[in-house]
Design a protein that fits this description.
Number of helices: 17
Largest sheet: 2 strands, antiparallel
Order of helices and strands: HEEHHHHHHHHHHHHHHHH
Helix content: over 70%
Distance between the termini: 28 Å
Strand content: under 5%
Strand order of the largest sheet: 1-2
Radius of gyration: 20 Å
Oligomer: single chain
Number of strands: 2
Length: 354
Amino acid sequence: MTSHQTGFRTASPRGFLTIGRSVAVPVRRVSVLTALVLVVLLVVAAVATLSLGRLGIPLADLAGAMTGGAEGRDAFVLERLRGPRLTVAVGTGGALGLSGALFQSVTRNPLGSPDVIGLGAGAGAGAAIVALMFPDTVPVGLGALLGALLAMVLVHVSTGTGFRNPARLVIAGIGVSAIGAAVTQYVVYAMERDRAAVLSAYVNGSLSARSWDDAGTIWLVLLVVAPLTALIARRLDIEEMGDDIAGALGSGPRGTKTIAVVLAIVLSAGAVGVAGPIAFISLTAPQIAKRITRVSGPHLLLSTLTGALLLVLADLCAQQLPLFDNLPVGIYTMAIGGAYLGWLLIREWRRGIL
C-alpha cells in the first residue's frame, strides 16, 4: 500500500491524484481502466434505454435528438418519458453505490450496506409517513432523510459498540429493517387505499414517471456530497489498515467514520426520496468494484459508476422484458441482490465472521 510507504502527511504521495492540499484521491492503473470500461458500458446501456422498444428513438436519429433536434414523438420520449427517467437512474444508482462504498469502508464489512443495516427501510418509513400523513406539508425527501437518521441512531445504540462489531451491526440492522418495514406497512394500510397506491414507489422502489425535478434533486445531492467524499478519500484508504494504524498516522479514525456515515446517509436518503428504497445496489456495487480491480481501498468512484450501471441495466430490464409489464425496478434489484446476499452470508459464515 502506497500510504504505508509514503506516510499520511506526504504532499504528493505516489498512487494518489492530489488537488491542492486537501484532496488526495487514490488512483491506480487498473482502477482507471475499469472506470473507462464502466463508462463505456454505461453509455451503451443508456443508448439502449433510449432507443429500444416501441417508444424508443431510432438509433439513427438519437444523436440529432440529443443535440436539440428532437421534434414531435421523439421530443416527448426524450424530454418527458425516458430522458428524465434515465437521468434519475444514473444519479440514483451512483448515489447508492457511493453510499454503500462509504459504509463498507467505515465498517470494514461487505455486509455493511445501507439497505442491509436498516437505513433504506428507515428512509422508506420516513417517506411513507410524510407522503401519506403530511402531504403537501413536509417534503418527501426530508422525511426520508429523517427516517434514515433515526434508523442509524437505533442501529448505533442497539449494537452497544457503534459500528465496530460486524456481526452485531448486521443483526441490529435486520431488526431495524423489520421495524422500518412494519412502520411503512402500518402507514400504508392505515391510510386511504388510493393515497396508498401513490406510495407504492416508496415501498418497492420505482423509476416510473420520474421528472426533471427528481433528476435535479438526486444530481444536486451527488454534486454536493461527491466532492466532500473526495476530501476524505485518502483517510478512508488509510482506515483499511485498522483504527490503531490510522490513528498513529494522524487520520483521526473516529472523525473520518462520523463524516463518512453522515455523507452515506445523505446519499441514501436522497436516492430513496426520488426513487424509493431500491434494494441491494449499495451492497453489490462496492463488492463488484473491489472484485474487478482486486486491490484494497474504498473504490468510491468505481462504486459510483458500478451503481449507476447496475440501476440503468435493471431499469432497462423493467422497461423491455415482456414477461412483467411495469414491474418496479426495485423488484429486479431485489431478485438479483437477494441471491448475492445469500451467497455472501454463506461465505462469511464459513469464514467464521458471522
